[in-house]
Amino acid sequence: MELSVNGHAVYAHTGGRPFDPALPVVVLIHGAGMDHTVWSLQTRYLAHHGRAVLAVDLPGHGRSAGAPLASVAELADWIVALLDAAGVERAALVGHSMGALVALDTAARHGGRVESLALLGVAEVMPVHPDLLAAAAANDPSSIELVIGWGHGPRGHVGGSAAPGLALLPGGRRLMQRTPPGVLGVDLAACNAYARGTEAASAVACPTLFLLGAADRMTPAKAGRALAAKVKSSQVVVLPGIGHMVMTESPDAVVDALAEHLAPKAR
């Protein structure tokens, strides 16, 4: 599906079904240097189980035009503009890593537009090593190797894909190699600079699911739990042996957790 957001063409995958804004809407937001394809094993399930799905390519990523936005706050405001463009008043937001910060900030500052949150691979702060920031800014291929290597848990380092014949590390590597020059550097700098995690978490009023990997070396589960404690209504699910790339390393468990979290609740 193509939309126009702030004058630029934007692509969002709808999970194989036509987008219907009359249904409960869920927006999935990818992490640094990635695109909507990281949600491939979640979007189809959600779209075929009562949700209208927008797995979006952020500006400058995947099939979306425009320059990458330089801060988490700008990206959060962009999510609201995306909802406006899609004719959606309120949506559930699901975000991974940088996308989790974006979802968190959106809910904190635009709470009336957010029904619920699911945050994967998240922490109050996400500092990035200066050497990685420099490598990404210079488009050094080593930056991709560092992100992919550190981003996957033990399963990813021995194949690990739920799809037969594929492997997680080569797949992640190829995805990030397709990202336009400069984008990863902008994204990592935005993560590194975001300092409103505690403030944002305290302002979130909607139900929030934290999906964390026990073997996550980028945003350790301990840090995710600490952030969850600052949210008024939160649930924490920790997946054993899983690294930072939660939705690709353990797609079935993520689907199960999202399905339960997004299910209509009795009132």
From TrEMBL:
Domain AB hydrolase-1 stretches: 24-249
Protein name: Pimeloyl-ACP methyl ester carboxylesterase
Organism (species): Azospirillum rugosum
